[in-house]
Automatic annotation (TrEMBL):
Keyword Oxidoreductase: yes
Pfam families in UniProt: ArsC
Protein family (similarity comment): Belongs to the ArsC family.
Taxonomic lineage: Bacteria, Bacillati, Actinomycetota, Actinomycetes, Kitasatosporales
Transmembrane regions: none
Provenance organism: Streptomyces lancefieldiae
Name the UniProt record assigns to this protein: Arsenate reductase family protein
Assigned keywords, A-Z: Oxidoreductase
């Protein structure tokens, strides 16, 4: 299991605390330092079952500078959104947990973190 975090984010710190309390085996990825590329973002989106605009932090300054509010949210614009996320990782919603069973969740709530933990437990041999 891997968790993408920004250490300054309270939701990320809460998710880590819960993972620690549950004794989870996980790797921390500070995605602002270890930025995911476009292909990795596409893979995580597939695992999440979401589109890039679904995990975009539209209130970030970069979103305003890019004019994301006016970008179409359709298949033809998907690559443009993915590129924006790769070039401006602060736009990526956090935390994101990728489980060993191939699933992923945006872990902004305790329930979402517990969902990731249950998927991880089910994915173990």
């Amino acid at each position: 299991m891997e968790i993408w975090i920004n250490p300054a984010c309270s939701k990320c710190r809460s998710a880590i605390s819960l993972l620690d309390a549950e004794g989870a085996d996980y790797t921390v990825r500070r995605y602002l330092d270890d930025v995911p590329g476009e292909e990795e973002i596409r893979e995580v989106l597939t695992r999440l079952g979401l589109e890039p605009w679904d995990i975009t932090r539209t209130q970030e300054a970069a979103a305003g500078q890019l004019g994301l509010a006016d970008w179409p949210r359709d298949a033809a614009s998907r690559d443009r959104w993915v590129t924006a996320l790769a070039e401006h990782p602060k736009l990526i919603q956090r935390p994101i947990i990728t489980a060993d069973d191939g699933s992923a969740v945006v872990a902004r709530t305790e329930d979402a973190v517990r969902d990731a933990l249950s998927r991880q437990a089910q994915g173990r041999p």
